[in-house]
Amino acid sequence: MSDQAISAAVAKLYDTYPFPPDPLLDQPPPGYNWRWNWLTAYAFCTGRKPAQQDIRILDAGCGSGVGTEYLVHLNPQAQVVGIDLSAGTLAVAQERCRRSGADRVEFRQLSLFDADQLPGAFDLL
């Protein structure tokens, strides 16, 4: 089976069953998750504070936007790009972020195999 056929099958699955299936809320995501916070994750990995907070983040395989929403809300100076194969799942991600006010995100229907088509560099993947 070719990469394109596999990608099409995966996209069809997630168009039918968007994942993760977390409910859509009309508020920012509940709680705090240190893994989605650039300052905390960087300090944890390097033992020091990052030089900048105005970064670009790529959420590759963003699914229904659960993690994407955290990335936007927990990194107030960052620009976030979410990519996924599934148009249906991306529609859920867009709605999730719209409802919670996560407005510094761009979504693209794109395979991980084609992520090099995105312009510019990313500071966090």
The best one-word shape is globular
Q: Ends: how far apart?
A: 28 Å
Radius of gyration, whole Å: 15 Å
State the total count of DSSP E strands: 3
> Taking strands numbered 1, 2, ... along the chain, how are they ordered across the largest sheet?
1-2-3
**Which residue ranges are poorly predicted, with pLDDT under 50 across at least 5 consecutive positions?**
none
**Portion of residues in helices?**
25-40%
Structural class: alpha/beta
Number of helices: 4
Question: H/E series, N to C?
Answer: HHEHEHE
Largest sheet report: 3 strands, parallel
Estimated share of beta-strand residues: 5-15%
| Overall pLDDT metric | 93
Describe the fold and architecture.
It contains 4 helices and 3 strands. With 125 residues, it is an alpha/beta fold. The chain has a 3-stranded parallel β-sheet with strand order 1-2-3, with helices on one face. It is globular, with a radius of gyration of 15 Å.
Lay out the secondary structure.
Layout: H1 3-16, H2 38-46, E1 56-60, H3 66-74, E2 79-84, H4 87-100, E3 105-109
Parallel strand pairs: 1-2, 2-3
